Protein 1
Amino acid sequence: MENKAVLEVKDLAISFRTFEGKVQAVRGVNFSLNKGETLAIVGESGSGKSVSTKAINQLLPKKNTLIERGEILFEGKDLLKISEKEMQAVRGNDIAMIFQDPMTSLNPTMQVGKQIAEPIIAHKGVSKEEAKEKALELMDLVGIRDPKESYKNYPHQFSGGMRQRVMIAIALACEPKILIADEPTTALDVTIQAQILDLMNKLKKELDTSIIFITHDLGVVAQMADRVAVMYAGQIVEVGTADEIFYNPMHPYTWGLLASMPTLEVGQTDLYTIPGSPPNLLHPPEGDAFAARNAYAMEIDFHQEPDLFKVSDTHYAKTWLLHPDAPDVQPPLEVQRRKEKYQSLFSGQGQFNRIGGEAIGSRG
Amino acid sequence: MKKYIIKRLLTAIPVLLMISIGAFVMMNLAPGDPTDLYVTPDATPLQVEATRRALGLDQPYPVQYIRWLTRALQGDLGINYATRYPVLPILVSRIGPTIVLMGATLVVSYLIAIPLGILSARKHGTWVDNLLTGGAFVGVSIPNFFLGLGLIYIFSVQLSWFPTGGMSQLGGESSFLSVIHHLVLPVTVLSAFYIANMTRYMRATMIEVYGENYIRTATAKGLAAEVILTRHGIRNALIPVITIIGTDLPRLVGGAIVTEQIFQWPGLGRLTIMAIQQREYPMLMAITMLSAVVVLLANLLVDIMYAVVDPRIKFD
Ligand SMILES: Nc1ncnc2c1ncn2[C@@H]1O[C@H](COP(=O)(O)OP(=O)(O)O)[C@@H](O)[C@H]1O
Ligand SMILES: [Mg+2]
């Protein structure tokens, strides 16, 4: 693979000190973000998506956060090692963020236009007038009607969808190299959600920004992502291109997520849900953290953490099912249908027949 | 906004009327008769009756009240029983010192407390925060008279740094510096509570504001800590703090009574105590109404301040 990664996260592990003990929220996460791509991070709530990405911009509470190990490499610098002043120059300028809650993410006592102009003034060393000009352009770009009038409005005069557009304008203000969107549409209703996703897709094409898109909704992933990382209990359990994850998933947890995804297909009656709940990260279980909820779990899953197996150059999964000695199992019907559909669409390529696992790293 | 203010002022009228009736009734329900203090013990019932008539106390209560009200509306607040001086000029001469005392107290309190509260919040959980929180706890708990007498004992009696009371040197001219010198102890006593209370409140709201998502947004923009504090933190923390100003003002009216008495401050507070002791009903009515007006205006001021600081609040 040529080295076009703008960001590389290596073996990142983060814990929080709490009254009950140390919560191991992120347990050795590796991923890279390539130039111009959208990487989706999916997983149930509490799997460590927000924590891993907040760490990139160092937005985790200083008081109780422990960065146990790892590196976050951006333009050759390890963001975990630079000073707060240097980090300020990165935040909002090189790496910008959009959050889940547009209703509370804007300062209620500041005009929205000023809130958009603020990072431009902070990072680009331009005059207030120039920053305002740029802010007005951004408001137009993200589809806020009548920017001149809206500039002076306060957040409470905007709907949730409009506020999220303002957040996007703020995030894009300095033309960042990386945009991290943490569940940007989760709090919005379906039609507004679709509009915001359209907007982000449009902007992505126009601006050539690399995006990390966090969501627990695979439906959203399908619309946005080039590549997908599936997170479970503080680890990435499977990563691959969007096609690989949707049509040739390898990890039983990914199977579960896909099976529980609503589709437009007729005849689908009741939706599957993954049984049980994620493990308590105060005391992560031995072996595969998903074993207790996994219908395909084998003996080894309960006492040894799986290696990360390579499926293709772009596709890896952390499950013992990929071990050459593992029994051949059939994924849930829903997932089998996906595979078949994909193979019929791209027949002849044949690259999705399961290949014997080749362990590329081992821990645990 | 203008319409709103006028509306508020108009609704204040019935409130003030109710307060005046209440005050009038309570004074007349209280045991004792003002005439007791103005006739010699061996006065004949006829002489007592004559005094009562002279003071207008022989009339039925409603008549007395209506008479008081119609005169008050024309600016005549009655006379002081003992001196036969009109109430109004006495009242006016006492307003200045009280405004000086209260004004100095509020300015000093907020100038100290707001930065302390912010500091405490930003140093949340450190020894600085613990020290300030502990100090504030003492400050809200300590009674005025205790602190006042303690300070007089140490700084006036023992160290002779500050006068024990009054507003200026007896016989001396009341220069600005002399007034400041006399102000130090009473303002310290009176401020103790407001500094402590406001510090605690400012700390709490500042901590809350720093947990808000818009502070996270400001941080994610790459703004410097000072910019986040001044542009995003303080302004939002001030909104709930205005409520405290609204309760501080009326409380100050009460607090000044005790402090003025301790420090012989020639203001309304001492006048109030004198008027109570001597059953100077017209004077008490006047002071009560003045306090009521101050409290109502303070409330209005607070609401206007909300509207100025918080764009979400609009009056129509
Ligand atoms: N500040 C914190 N203190 C303690 N625990 C935290 C903190 N932030 C997150 N966590 C815990 O870390 C885990 C991962 O959280 P998060 O990354 O927010 O999940 P999600 O995948 O839903 O974004 C959760 O168990 C959460 O409770
Ligand atoms: Mg999250």
Protein 2
Amino acid sequence: MAALESRLRALLSDRRVLDAPDALLAWECDGFTVHKSRPRAVVLPESTAEVQAVVRLLHQERVPFVPRGAGTCLSGGPTAGTDAVVIDLARMKQVLRIDADDQFAVVQPGVVNVELTAAVRHLGLHYAPDPSSQTVCTIGGNLAENSGGPHCFKYGMTQDHVLGAVVVLPDGEIARLGDAGGPRPPGLPDLLGVFCGSEGTFGVATEITVRLCRDQSAVRTLLASFASMADACRAVGAIVRKGLVPAALEILDRATIQAVEASAYRAGYPADAAAVLLVELDGPPDVIAEEADEVRAAFAAHGALRSEEATDDAERKRLWKGRKGAFGAMGRVSTDLYVLDGVVPRSRLEEALDGITAIGTKHGVRITNVFHAGDGNLHPNIPFDGRDAAETARVVAAGHEILRLCVDLGGSISGEHGIGTEKLDHFGMMYSAADRDVMARVRAAFDPHGRCNPGKALPSRGACAEPAKWPQMVAKVLDAEKPR
Amino acid sequence: MSAFAPRSDAELADWLRSRPGRVRLMGAGSRVGRAAPADGAHAVQLAGLDAIERLDAPDQTCTVGCGVRREALDDALRAHDLELPCPGGGTIGGLFAADPLGAASHAGHSPRSLLLGLEGVLADGTAFRSGARVVKSVAGYDVHKLFVGSEGRLYAATKLHLRLKPRPRAESWFAHDGLADAEALARLQALRAEPVAPAAVQLRRDGGGVTLVGRCAGRPTFVRAQLQKHALTESECAWSDHLTAPTGGEIVAGLARASALPGLFAALPATATLLWHGGGRFEAALPDAAASDALLKTAAAHDVTARVVATTAPARRERGSPTDPGAAHLAAALRSALDPHGILV
Ligand SMILES: Cc1cc2nc3c(=O)[nH]c(=O)nc-3n(C[C@H](O)[C@H](O)[C@H](O)COP(=O)(O)OP(=O)(O)OC[C@H]3O[C@@H](n4cnc5c(N)ncnc54)[C@H](O)[C@@H]3O)c2cc1C
Ligand SMILES: Cc1cc2nc3c(=O)[nH]c(=O)nc-3n(C[C@H](O)[C@H](O)[C@H](O)COP(=O)(O)OP(=O)(O)OC[C@H]3O[C@@H](n4cnc5c(N)ncnc54)[C@H](O)[C@@H]3O)c2cc1C
């Protein structure tokens, strides 16, 4: 067994291959802490050639592997089985090329999202997708998860911003996808489009070409408070119906406001509000001045208690601070936090939120909501004490019902966080066995031997045919809580 | 070619299950002349699957049969102050399967970003779904994104779920013809440097000089200001999606970023017509094979990739910049995974 590790060391040097059990602790899970497992080893390559050499060796030795960025995933995507080697891309953090004229950059996968924008800010450019984890998460992880963020209502998800990628395929060969591969010959489908969001199961992206957006000349940030969640949702509907496309449309509910206000992320949100709606407009100053008037009119028409607007950058940061810190604030409420990620059509938001409240009551769990209202992308958060097995089971049961509700309302079980291992049992809510089989064929075209991040993103054959694998999931959670 | 025109998804699936032999999928057929010949294959005309199944105006999404014509969808959307913000005509299925302008489209909207999901049928008649009707979903592999650019070689899409955008409150097309190369490039550069660039922009270059075409869209004050600032002359919409090959000539298509345009201009023989779209895709109509070869030979030196896409000489089809071998391998693997018997040609 040691032979593999020493061959990896020969490729990368001693320092960049870790296999001592204690050293592996940092890689035992991602943000979905329910699922923990220590990998066989971790390697830290620094170039495409090194990734290729590692993958070739693992392919030869038939050893599974898992690409990993910053490990902020919330669905278990980068958590490796005990037989697998983690290919950690954190050291590949070079911005390889910036082309301001043609508005693109080529980066290594370990570049942290916010650092890419920092690298191009002096050119009046930025990288638009902005997951709330952007100070930590990597462009490689964003590509693999097709990540979004508060500003994707206007600017789109990661897939709308990637132009090309160099990928080390699971057999060690290299493929250049998108523009990185030259002109598309007739009949060549959008390989980069399907790679985006494949959760590290199609290969390792080692160079990524992304679009850069021009900074807008002005930004206006408005916040309104409402006496009911329904009013806040209707205000969102009204803003969108007017044909406005704000950069962001975010809602926080009462419980989240209270948690934020009691935390280090205090933003001065009105404590008496049932919901606050944060709207950001960007564009030419006279255009967004007109738009701000229309937004304020929508606030008023839907009974806003109060509204305010940031007058300078410090104020803007304050209004965003509560939204950006919402998960952190909720994390302090209890020892554990289950973050859900279902999507509903925007017009069904009110129904969805009523349903979520009812589900919380039914299962005796507290559910708070902070969400991308423009996209209908909910983030119900359930704080709980993971040491309490019965409470954990109720939490997971409530989560399952919430995702069912999202699908019944015409939506999806995940808007941003992916399936990973967390939602494997929910997959059948959206897809039939035939749908799953077609996806499995696509996966096999990229990874015929099934060694690239096995056990993630797609349930095994047969799993979709059973409508309720649910009791097994409860069992899994309870099992994880047993003292060992 | 014998023809089959299904009236429903189920009829298409049943027919494919009967193992009819090789099949050529078609929408409105506008690209027929560009496809490789498919002698002996059945033509499957999908234009009859033309129902707009749902139009969820408040959610800015719709579900359409693949045979819905672009104009029919545009009319239906106009009634709700919505639009599908990407160029291209024919049927919606044909437009997405052909993806004429690629993902780097000028204003950020491309078939990739507008296709939320679909219902499809594999060559063996297996019906499946991918994606969702909502504007955001990362559940499951995006098998629907593979449809984009697949040109009927992977599977048939029967229904497409699309993302829509609000129709701008004002729009104006502009066109400036007879420009010298340098002036056209300078004007283009100035437009591209704007924080909010025009919603569409295109250059057409032939013996008469360069024509700069585009569309300003947004609030009326903004559109007026943009036209004024750049001294743009309003005109009828002069946009074109494609070029037609001259008799005995060829079409070469490829990718040239804006900064590569001077090089592309230099590489083009004087007899060529060029159509360059803001996102970087271009087509050039060349009078003969020698002119195409002259362009292909110098393209790489100018950071331009290019390939013959329409020709009367079958052996010359696809001549030009090489496809990345890894990508070609993946495309072949996907084809054999989804259509192992090579039914779709
Ligand atoms: C507090 C918090 C807030 C968050 N907010 C958001 C949000 O607003 N929007 C959102 O979309 N997500 C959000 N997330 C989830 C997470 O940050 C994103 O999924 C992010 O893109 C993961 O990036 P990462 O670098 O941490 O990747 P990891 O977690 O390390 O990996 C994620 C997946 O990508 C694969 N992967 C990583 N790098 C590569 C590569 N180079 N090639 C191939 N596969 C690779 C891994 O195998 C894994 O399956 C949040 C998470 C946290 C903890
Ligand atoms: C020579 C030429 C002429 C054009 N003429 C016009 C024009 O007059 N007006 C205009 O607006 N635009 C035109 N276009 C551009 C147009 O935007 C695209 O070519 C469009 O994709 C054609 O749609 P169609 O329905 O005619 O598709 P077709 O030409 O019928 O098919 C295009 C490709 O898509 C595949 N396909 C079609 N439907 C499906 C489906 N449901 N499932 C799977 N595969 C499918 C076909 O196999 C084929 O490979 C033209 C393009 C070319 C190259």
